[in-house]
Amino acid sequence: VMAHPYGGSWGYQVTSFYAPVPSWGTPDEFRQFVDTLHGHGIGVLLDWVPAHFPRDEWALARFDGTDLYEHAGPRGSHPDWGTLVFNYGRNEVRSFLLSNAMYWVQEFHVDGLRVDAVASMLYLDYSRKAGEWVPNVHGGREDLDAVAFLQDLNRVVHAEVPGTIAVAEESTAWPGVSKPTDTGGLGFGFKWNMGWMHDTLAYFQQDPIHRKHHHGELTFSLVYAFDESFVLPLSHDEVVHGKRSLLEKMPGDRWQQMANLRALYAYMWAHPGKQLLFMGGEIAQEREWSEERSLDWHLLARPDHAGVQGLVRDLNRTYRRLPALWEVDGDPAGFTWLESTDADRNVVAFVRRSASDDQQVVCVANLRALYAYMWAHPGKQLLFMGGEIAQEREWSEERSLDWHLLEEDEHRGVSTLVRDLNRLVVEHPALHQLDVEPRGFQWVDVNNHLENVLAFMRQSAAGDRVVCVSNFAAVPRPGYRFGLPEPGTYRLLLNTDSSYYSGGDRLHIDCVETEEQPWHGLPYSAVVDIPPLTTLLFGSPVKNANGVEHPDACAPPEPKPPVPVDTGSPVPLSQEVSQDAQTPKATKATKSAPSKRKAAPAAGDAEGAGSSAKKSSRKSAKRSPRKQADEEERRE
Question: Residues with Cβ < 8 Å from 605, sequence gap 6 or more?
């Protein structure tokens, strides 16, 4: 915001410290701009650069023909940026800078200052070789004048305008940057955590298969997370000069890049520290940032980019709603590792606590995959109260369950999943009839630890089978081949990634066809693209009384009347199951497989028109089952 002559400096080479950029408006218009933002609940922090200034003759350089604001000789020249370094040992220079900081805070009512390039101020040997710098009076490399100036800055600003935020962009291990000045600290409110930014981006840029070798880059930040009051930045320096945008840093295809970016943001918001995204990060900007053009706002016309923007909005709202994410941010008591060493599966888990010790951690995507695996596993299933709605808080006898969570899609989706799993167990004897007999279970894929995939079969006394395939990795497994004992069409009974359960809806099939290719020690096999954190259940081929497979086994069944919205009134299980109209089928979770679609009927073919109408009806039922159910209930 401070006036600077060259746009390519991004405002970091200031020539007029007491003037807003005139091409954007007058000082009074800038005041109005700040007040307008405040009126909408938006705080304003300014970049402030007391570390150096440019050599323009009409500005501060040799202001009176002598080295007035800068050091004389080589010490006054910054080796990296070709600029001049302020002489903090002169009272007049300190007064100029301290007054300037107060000018922006008091005259324009800004909420804080982010002080740039603090590390270059603190060290006499910053970017200088041996012999190019002179030690301080104690023989050390610390610039004692700069240290005293920064302490004075924070003392004055916080005393004159309490509540002002002062943030240091400091990239070294200098101790006490955000500690009070009376204990020897520099007095800043926050310090940028540059180490977290570097290590976290290095980890996320790795292909998931290689991340287990970089697991420490994800967990090391918690070694020092409480030494300072940190800001977690994903800054401008990481999205310029060929470093690529955050989205383009992510590995894989576009879907995987978006999924990686979303996972990074959610991890970042849960990590101790304050979150900072550079402009464009909130819409998954594809191109690198440039001062010569605006952001690519047109990307918001695409659902994946609008989804990232919605995620950032919801993360901010969730952050404010849950004190556990910020109330004891700088205290180790507010953080506990649950899982920090599972490098092979690329998983970390931790708890954030509020001052009252409420725990606020839930991962619904993992929960859906777990439940379907649990229901397919031999044995009887038992969830403790709240598990069926993905309860977020720990259970307590002093309060009821958080039933209000069912107003949110993801929690309602888990509740629907548990209901459908119970119905599947009753409908398919393979899932219960030989529950305690070894012949009722057979492993298909048990050693696939590299991909985090499991596959097994359950079998009934009559030989009917249900095949369970679970991908517990956070990445999809395209083209996954699994063995099968007999040829035919295996119908998809349940897909935990279905939008019907508030999943990602990334699998659009109703069945898989076997191939005569032995796999996993079985004579046949099939291929499926498994979404991340997903469990799929397949039913064995449907045969008629003569043992012949139905000719259109992959066609989804005709849509039944929709499942009524749960009113809370108990319904006996026997009565509920006997009502076929209440049993959701795979069509609600998936779309028809393209390979099974029949050719379009000839014009005027009445039977073909009827078939087309039926397909259209099925598609309608699959696209929005919950909406259709609500409409049917209203009509009734």
Answer: none
